[in-house]
Design brief:
This protein has 531 residues and is mainly β.
């Protein structure tokens, strides 16, 4: 089956969210659409977005102000919130999310922007992932979930339980309804979403791996099977590798759509929107060029959903720090302490360094980060040290499994330019190149810039006078993804272990620009401002 775009209709381009929004799920309520995503160790977690057309999205907030327990006082890379499910039932929004080290949690809210309830531990245990509820027409409720081999030694199977309708407890030990080991070519089946249509119970689930797999669907007349399945979306001749798990959403006008992610490595898991429908045998098709029950391929361009038009909204990146609350685009690497940050509402953010510098920024909880755009970008700000102890440092960082930073050091005699790179090793190394020689600064203030090109190569630049030319480092840093997430742009401040905590780091407005990049005469990747 193929799709044709009306010549007069507005057209969108995939990905519709071109940054790291992992494992999206979405629902339509009263003509508006709501989307959530995984957040892993990042806090606040469970970001919530809203759209009126399924293409253009704006931030509503977060459902999870902090991860449960003292375990997350430190960065736990690859842990925290894995693939969640979002549903609207009985006048409430429901989020079911897994923590692979602790179990499956449930939150509810009357409004998607919150306030959300405290997480309730529905199912305690390791290796439980990717839950999704289903409330049936007869009042019964069910839960499907997958398994994480990294935690429990089992994967490639999906399990269904009976559940109390209030989402407070499971009523049985579960039935394994789909075993990928019995299906040809299925190496990893995960991310199930549970639906019911025309008397059929449907489980939508990707398989074959995040970066290389495909989307399958399974149906049965009973929630406990037996299920029959088929592949409905795969890369084919497109450039969209491994079209992975997501959400079936219906519009008030009766159109069906499928939101899914694509793994883009350092840029994370970006979100695509595919047209969807149903064939004469009652099976769904997705994308374009599906025929004879075979899988479709992802579209790169398509007309907007019927009855909608483009809107000038998007999740923010830049921040003028004009308010007294942290913008939705920001997150920490672990559960935050209220003493880490002050927002006076005067155009600055004030970081308060803790005496907790591990000499490895992957292990520093108070790194203030945001997701890396999926296109060429520039990230710039200023930092000023104020009465911090000797040995303190502050800077900007590109943070993933490997990281690089540039910033300012408080020395015994004044201030110096600082830099480093590190990762999963215990300690940092200096950035190679010109910064192996010390650079003394005239004062405590520094302007900093990171530019990233289309091939995820980054350059750092600095100046200690706003009227001076940018000094561009001669080192190119290859941006690396994090643990199940894309790389992040961040700001940090820390003092040496055992030092007396004092002083602050004043952060100026943060500007993030995205545009096609070019190489300027200085060798930096120059990015033109968009707004």
């Amino acid at each position: 089956m193929s799709t044709n775009n009306p010549a007069t209709a507005p057209v969108y381009t995939n990905p519709i969210l071109n940054a790291d929004w992992p494992d999206p799920d979405a629902v339509q309520v009263d003509g508006s659409y709501y989307l959530i995503a995984s957040s892993f160790n990042r806090v606040p977690g469970l970001p919530v977005l809203k759209s009126r057309n399924l293409v253009d999205w704006e931030y509503l907030g977060h459902a999870l102000p902090a991860l449960p327990g003292r375990h997350y006082a430190l960065p736990r890379h690859g842990s925290g919130v894995w693939a969640p499910a979002l549903r609207h039932h009985d006048g409430k929004f429901w989020i079911f999310y897994p923590d692979p080290d602790h179990g499956i949690f449930v939150l509810t809210a009357t409004h998607a922007e919150g306030p959300w309830s405290e997480p309730h531990l529905l199912y305690a245990g390791r290796g439980l992932i990717d839950p999704c509820p289903l409330w049936d027409d007869d009042g019964q409720a069910y839960l499907v979930h997958g398994w994480a081999k990294s935690r429990i030694g089992v994967k490639n199977r999906l399990t269904v339980h009976r559940m109390s309708p209030d989402g407070r407890r499971l009523l049985d030990s579960g039935v394994h309804v789909i075993d990928g080991d019995t299906l040809p070519g299925y190496t990893t089946i995960e991310g199930p979403k549970f639906y019911k249509r025309d008397g059929w119970y449907w489980i939508f689930a990707p398989a074959g791996g995040v970066a290389t797999g495909w989307q399958s669907v399974f149906r049965s007349r009973s929630p406990f099977g037996p299920y029959e399945g088929r592949r409905v979306l795969e890369q084919g001749s497109s450039t969209v590798n491994g079209p992975h798990q997501g959400a079936w959403v219906s519009t008030p006008e009766g159109q069906d759509w499928f939101l899914h992610f694509q793994d883009r490595g350092p840029y994370g898991r970006v979100v695509h929107l595919q047209p969807m429908g149903w064939d004469q045998d009652g099976w769904p098709w997705m994308g374009e060029n599906a025929s004879d029950g075979g899988p479709g391929t992802p579209v790169l361009h398509h007309s907007y959903p019927a009855g909608t038009a483009p809107e000038n909204v998007a999740p923010p990146a830049s921040d003028d720090f004009a308010g007294t609350r942290l913008g939705h685009q920001w997150h920490w690497q672990a559960n935050p302490d209220e003493t880490w940050l002050t927002l006076p509402g005067n155009g600055t953010a004030v970081l308060h360094p803790k005496a907790n510098d591990p000499i490895n920024l992957r292990e520093l909880p108070n790194v203030l980060g945001q997701i890396l755009p999926g296109v060429e970008c520039s990230f710039s700000t200023s930092l000023e040290l104020d009465a911090v102890p000797a040995g303190s440092r502050a800077g900007v960082v590109l943070l993933g499994r490997q990281y690089a930073w540039l910033g300012i050091l408080r020395t015994a005699n004044g201030y110096a330019l600082g830099s480093g790179r590190g990762g999963e090793r215990p300690h940092e190394e200096p950035l190679p190149g010109s910064l192996l020689d010390p650079v003394e600064l005239s004062g405590p203030r520094l302007e900093l810039r990171i530019t990233v090109d289309a091939d995820h190569r980054a350059r750092f630049a600095w100046r200690d006078d706003a009227k001076a030319e940018w000094q561009v480092l001669d080192t190119v840093f290859e941006v690396v993804e994090g643990q199940w997430i894309g790389a992040e742009l961040g700001i940090f401040a820390a003092s040496p272990l055992g030092s007396a905590e004092s002083g602050s780091v004043i952060v100026g407005p943060v500007r993030v620009d995205t545009a096609p990049a070019a190489v300027d005469p200085s060798g930096a990747f120059a990015v033109a401002a968009t707004s």
